[in-house]
Design brief:
- It is a single chain.
- The protein is an all-alpha fold and 260 residues long.
- 65% of the residues lie in helices and 0% in strands.
- α4 runs antiparallel to α5 and α7 runs parallel beside α9.
- It is globular, with a radius of gyration of 39 Å.
Length: 260
């Protein structure tokens, strides 16, 4: 209807009819007014929301999860999931089964051998093989393993570190009792005249090393890092004594012949 050309009576009739229509449609009018009063807002979907249209979970959760996994650095223990399923202490034990570890090591090396790859993949395989070798050698040796675990906890130790004083030592400094025992053992080695004497000292030294490794297992599992540090130093002394015994044995025949 053209309202500009309509007569006043026609326009009046139109408005009357218009009002009656909305009067008879009160519910519709209420709905229109309610909608008009509500401001428009954008609701951001939650990360865990599953879209019903395709049944696919939001990719945001997956991306964040993958990012967290990539942040955590990989340790030597992570390379051997079959032989070390519990990982490093305190979740796993300090002790390692050498035979089981070697079996998985050989399997990993067979897969990562550079001769099985070409081009860029070969370079990656060489890096992976070197990493596996380093991890295996470290974990196989109890002393190197202890030093590695301390390094993971921010305690760096040199190979020739002695039992130096620390804040927990109350100024006592060196462990005089341990040093005296080590000096006595070395004197016994120098004074030994037979292989039987060396074998007996080797057996005693192996007992010392096993006892030290057991204490390291207790300390690492308990989270006592300072005690683990000191015990690692002690184990280093007994490892050096073992080396001295091995060296005597290599030159033992000559020494025995001189005394005959």
């Amino acid at each position: 209807m053209n309202m500009s050309k309509a007569s006043p009576r026609s326009a009046s009739s139109f408005y009357v009819a218009f009002q009656r229509y909305f009067a008879s449609s009160g519910q519709c009018r209420i709905q229109i007014q309610t909608i008009a009063r509500q401001p428009w807002r954008y609701t951001r979907p939650r990360r865990h929301q599953v879209f019903a249209s395709n049944g696919i979970r939001s990719a945001t959760t997956s991306a964040v999860s993958n990012q967290k996994e990539s942040i955590r650095p990989q340790t030597h223990y992570d390379l051997f999931p079959s032989s070390l399923p519990s990982g490093a202490p305190p979740n796993g034990s300090f002790h390692i089964n050498p035979a089981v570890l070697r079996k998985e090591f050989l399997q990993l090396q067979a897969k990562a051998h550079p001769d099985r790859h070409q081009g860029i993949d070969k370079a990656k395989a060489e890096a992976a093989s070197a990493r596996i070798n380093d991890a295996y050698r470290t974990l196989l040796n109890p002393l190197a393993r202890a030093r590695y675990l301390l390094g993971l906890r921010g305690v760096e130790m040199g190979e020739d570190e002695s039992i130096a004083g620390s804040p927990s030592d109350s100024g006592q400094g060196m462990d005089a009792g341990l040093l005296m025992e080590v000096m006595e053992v070395r004197e016994e080695i120098e004074a030994a005249e037979s292989k039987a004497e060396i074998e007996e000292m080797k057996a005693r030294n192996e007992e010392r090393k096993r006892a030290s490794e057991n204490r390291l297992d207790d300390f690492f599992c308990a989270g006592d890092i300072e005690a683990a540090r000191r015990e690692t130093v002690k184990l280093g002394y007994w490892v050096n004594v073992g080396t001295a015994l091995e060296n005597w044995e290599k030159a033992g025949d000559g020494r025995v012949s001189e005394h005959d």
